Amino acid sequence: MIGKITGRIEYRTSDHVLIDVRGVGYLVYCSERTLAALPGVGEATALYTELLVREDVLQLFGFLTLVEKEWHRLLTSVQGVGAKASLAILGALGPDGVSRAIALGDWNAVRAAKGVGPKIAQRVVLDLKDKAPGVMAMGGTVAQATGDVGAEVIEPMPPIAKPQPPANASSQSEALSALGNLGYAPGDAAGAVAQAGAENPEADTPALIRAALKLLAPKG
């Protein structure tokens, strides 16, 4: 299993890049959002990867973060969602957007992805809502996980700019754990924490818990 690719971008197209790793070129398919975040041709990059194995094809898919990779794995586990649809959803919403949409049950947001109809969007939300808390607790790029992006490339590589996780990612994870300990269902807790975090990105753990509890309180 190929879990990570580190090398220089040889060329790029609308849906994939060729990454040269010590003279071996790997075709890696990515979402539009991930492709837009990659550096230019000739520059160094690092991607988490997922290998699709079929009788007639081997395809590598690349992701900047573990959250994006995990959502791809989960999305493609939903009946009717293939790799192309998964990348379309991730390209339209981004991994954090997918987390929020699924946690909040917002299937209309998922439907906004190209080629994804209402039935598939609803199925994605229903099948994966309880998986959102675990994914939301993940984070980090290849460089943050390994501590050295350039370890596998012979030539010295320039620094690579990478997106940072949400400011309150750790607070959201702690708030989710606290609400779980209070007996709230994972899906309900994830939705409340996601909404609270979106409304106040700088909130610390206690503030997120208070806000989420208000959202979870019975109405009326």
UniProtKB/TrEMBL annotation:
Domain II: annotated span:
65-142
Name of the featured protein: Holliday junction branch migration complex subunit RuvA
Task: Tell me the GO BP annotations in alphabetical order.
Answer: DNA recombination; DNA repair
This protein's record includes keyword DNA repair: yes
The organism's place on the tree of life at top rank: Bacteria
Question: What does the entry's domain section say?
Answer: Has three domains with a flexible linker between the domains II and III and assumes an 'L' shape. Domain III is highly mobile and contacts RuvB.
Q: Which GO terms describe its molecular function?
A: ATP binding; four-way junction DNA binding; four-way junction helicase activity
Q: Which gene encodes it?
A: ruvA
Function of the molecule: The RuvA-RuvB-RuvC complex processes Holliday junction (HJ) DNA during genetic recombination and DNA repair, while the RuvA-RuvB complex plays an important role in the rescue of blocked DNA replication forks via replication fork reversal (RFR). RuvA specifically binds to HJ cruciform DNA, conferring on it an open structure. The RuvB hexamer acts as an ATP-dependent pump, pulling dsDNA into and through the RuvAB complex. HJ branch migration allows RuvC to scan DNA until it finds its consensus sequence, where it cleaves and resolves the cruciform DNA.
Q: Which residues cross the membrane?
A: none
- What are the residue boundaries of the DNA helicase Holliday junction RuvA type domain, all occurrences included? 1-62
Q: Where is the Holliday junction DNA helicase RuvA C-terminal domain?
A: 172-217
Instruction: Indicate yes or no for the key word rRNA-binding.
Output: no
